[in-house]
Amino acid sequence: MAAVSRTGRQAGAWSLAGLVAMALAGCWGGPTKPDPTPLAPLEAKLVVAQAWNQSIGSVSFPLAVAVNDGTYTVASDDGTVLALNAANGAQVWRADVDAKLSAGVGSDGRIAAVVTRDNELVVLDKGVVTWRKTLPSRVVTSPLVAGERVFVVSVDRTVNAFDAFDGRKLWTYQKPGDALTLSQASVLQPFRDTLLVGQGGKLAGLDPLNGQVRWESTVASPRGTNEVERLADLVGPGARFGEQVCVRAFQVAVGCVNAERGTSMWSRNASGSDGVAGDDRMVVGADNIDRITAWRTVDGSVAWSGDSLLYRGLSSPVMAGLSVVFGDSEGYVHWFGRDSGTAVARQATDGSAIVVAPTRAGNVTLVVTSGGGLYAFRSE
Fold this sequence. Notes:
Oligomer: single chain
Number of strands: 34
Distance between the termini: 35 Å
Structural class: mainly beta
Largest sheet: 4 strands, antiparallel
Number of helices: 1
């Protein structure tokens, strides 16, 4: 279930708090959530084999796996941060930040960054903790490490930039926001020499050197009669390819922006609370009941839709060549044809939920289970 955060003033009456909880959980006194759709027998059309398997502690926070130069960097609840060779799973380095985590990992291949539950930004250089900085607001989005800087966006949408090597604060970007924001991982990623960050239903392009706004592009406009219904925050991960970045606005829309010009390309109404994947042909994501939809990248028209995995608690996806890959709440990994939506392969893990978006390095796809299993699969 997604969470919300009050910003700018204290939370209002308990009645509104109850409204938030019920609206986001979908519990208006109606039936409970249906059981996951049973998996149908599948004759694999794509050769997928397990490349390696490792383990790390349990994962219950919004983990983003960083991949750089053939290295995966992951983390667990207890503060373990681990860098692994993507091809064979060999450990590159392992560290313990001595605190439980609320967000991570960001990495450029050398510098890695996580945020603790005590709201402390912790930065490591090749596995050695080099500095810590207490942040003024709660963070659930993984930090971004790029250009010898560490960027952090908090749930109140404030963006802070720090020097990656000594922790000096370089700038802060903040503008008046809504009283209610989404406590879910937002969009924070680089595009050439621009920093992309979610600001409500808009994608903003900032100058990474000084935090000045270069452009803003609307993906979704808030609508509704109360604060909950007007939530339209962008949720990560977003999909980047060429000059395009495609993202989901919480429960409202999926859209694509030309990040070179800062202009909207298209936006389509779509429910859902998890990020999307995409390439130059398709943008793919799952909605609230785990119906999978593929939109054509060029114009946002629907290419295909599939309901074979309804109520299976799908993760955000990742593109893997001509396939798109999802994990589910029972630990299964599903490959679908990118252009057809046909199921082409399936693999099991440890039976615990895959709540982290799969990550791709070369022809290896890594999934992380909530039980701490790291499963790498190689596909033809």
